[in-house]
Amino acid sequence: MKAILYIGHGTRSKKGADEAKQFLEAVINQVDVPIQEISFLELTEPYIDEGFKRCVERGATEIKIVPIFLLTAGHIKQDIPNELAPLRQQYPDVKLTITDSFGVQEIILDAIAELINTTSGTLSPSDSLLIVGRGSSDPETRIAFGQISEGVQERTGVELVEVCYLAAIEPRLDEGLEIITAKASGRIIVVPYLLFGGLLLTEINQKVRKKEKLGYSITHTGSLGKHEVIQKIVIERAASQGELLCSR
């Protein structure tokens, strides 16, 4: 019997965890697979091993892993496979496949432009964007955000787009805000490249509000998961074949 195990990142924020679970429950209601379970890599229960075992207990003989991650980095390349390794040994007869992270897709860049326009209305070339990534030491992260920056700039027509990160690589959020406020001549729109709310989005919101109180015309779009296209991508991933990890 076929099953899907969705794997989110996880957060210490109850509000953020609830948001992710509600999102995935909405996806589950639109996917025609008999067994579907939600799990998280860290910080939020149920964890991967519990979700996996629930699938098996419900009769799963094939499990498709669907990671809910925007980009391919350490979590996709190392952490999730490491968590799955002992489960593969424990349940060798269960066929296991996995889908890719979302990656840099045209429809996601379109969605970001829509979120920006919804937040701030039509932009002028003098407005500026600050894209905030989670951050990773994986070298592909900078490459991906270079593509994201270019794609969003093309769609919005602004002259200045900067990128900063919340962890692992520079520039960090504080420096990114200093750079953008020093260069900007018009409005500043901060774009958190995050799927759901949580402590990271709260941090961005607090620092944006501080800049606003100093007199800057600055706001942020909120998380990307609220755009319907993200749900569509997950549903498509759930229907895709996936890459074989192990078989009998």
Automatic annotation (TrEMBL):
<dbReference type="InterPro" id="IPR002762">
    <property type="entry name" value="CbiX-like"/>
</dbReference>
<keyword id="KW-0456">Lyase</keyword>
<dbReference type="Pfam" id="PF01903">
    <property type="entry name" value="CbiX"/>
</dbReference>
<protein>
    <submittedName>
        <fullName>Sirohydrochlorin chelatase</fullName>
    </submittedName>
</protein>
<keyword id="KW-0479">Metal-binding</keyword>
<dbReference type="GO" id="GO:0046872">
    <property type="term" value="F:metal ion binding"/>
</dbReference>
<dbReference type="InterPro" id="IPR050963">
    <property type="entry name" value="Sirohydro_Cobaltochel/CbiX"/>
</dbReference>
<dbReference type="GO" id="GO:0016829">
    <property type="term" value="F:lyase activity"/>
</dbReference>
